[in-house]
Amino acid sequence: MAPGTSHSLPRVLTMTALWGAAAISGGLFLAATAAATPSQPSPGCVVTTHGSCTAGHSARTAETAMPTTTVAAARATTAFAVASNGPFLGLIGDGVDAAANCVGSACNGGRGGLLWGNGGNGANGGTGGDAGLFGNGGNGGNANTLGQAGGRGGNGGLLWGNGGDGGNGADGIPGSAGVNPSTPNGSFAYVGSSGTSSSGIGDQIGGAGGTGAPGGQYNFLFVTPIGGTGGGGGWAFSLSGNATGGNGGAGGAGAFGGPGGQGGTGGVASVGSTGTAISGDGGTGGTGGTGASGGQGGTGGVTWATTGVAGNGGTGGTGGTGAAGGDGGDGGAGGNGGRGGLFGGNGGQGGLGGNGANGGTGATGGQGGAGGTGGTSMYPTGTTGAGGTGGAGGTGGTGGNGGQGGKGGTGGRSFLSGTPGTSGGSGVAGTGGAGGQGGTGGTGGTSGSGSTGTAGQSGQSGHAASGRQGGTGGTGGSGGTGGAS
């Protein structure tokens, strides 16, 4: 052998074998497909939370890809193709299918050989592999996570081959039911200021108590979830005239699920000799935080006079509105179908969009605060105060809105010969959640003479959804009547 030629002959033989195999395989491919147009792949199914197909979606059947002779040629086992590892030297053979337990980019199907070979199928929302010059694109993977989009179908061979089907989108994430928060650790907000007191000759009038501070958070550290108690009404004393005590201040509203503050106590009224003493009424309880109870009404003021009239108990605070239900998640979009080959091949079917999830139910409204206790008279000839009316129950929480259905994937294109793929249907929108139950009304307060009040009424049921829109919460029940004086 002449010098310089010892390594060239094997290389020439190897390249000749590769190109010969490519030419033969291409000839087989064209001969088998000349009399038949590649058939259309079948649709798949939408993944649900139960792992089954949703209504109206059929399970994906085995792909009807290229004609039998074509597939036999494209998938033939040769010395140049190693199926388990993808195309030999990237030239001949099928792309690798993604594993069922794949994660991330590993869920994309492998590309088919540059000369010929089908693309591998995607999994778990991954894209299907593209074919080379001849071959079918791989199917996109169906989504396996709620709300995930389906994978795109692989493109058919540049010259000839069917596009792969797009994967189906998954259903959306269901909306969570509304949950009223537990009362966090913390303290009462500041008490309202006391009313100004008054005394002297002639008619005297005490000032009203201030409103308790609302619950809240101060300086990002100090949490006061419970509304502050209303300030007490100012007392009044008249040596020779009439005396009127100030009304108690209203309780502060609760925050972060804390109850409303209690109403302030009515101011005491007394006279020295003749004249009428009218004590102040108790303040109204504060409104509860989210789903929390309203504050109790304040106690009526005491009277010191033979013709005295004690103050009535304050009205209980309104219960807090229940927490809203969570919105349902949107369904995942279907993957687009892959395009067919330039000279022959059908476009892939678009994947089906996932259904939107239902919204969550609203939480129950908070209970109304109890009515305050009526004031007492220190003289048997005086009149005791009536018990306060119980507070109304809180409105139930609004139901969450249903999610939008995912958009179906677009069918793949076809060119000189073949049929375009059909676009996938869009998913159905989710239904809104029902509104929460209204809270129970508060119990009426006890009168100064000891008569008990009546129980509050139950709240109304929440309203049903209207399509995707969540239902409104039910109205809270009326508070009970306070005991008679």
TrEMBL record:
Domain of life according to the entry: Bacteria
Membrane spanning stretches: none
Low complexity composition-biased segments: 270-279, 454-467
Region (Disordered): 156-181, 265-314, 364-485
Residue ranges, compositional bias (Gly residues): 156-172, 280-301, 364-375, 384-412, 421-453, 468-485
Protein name in UniProt: PE-PGRS family protein
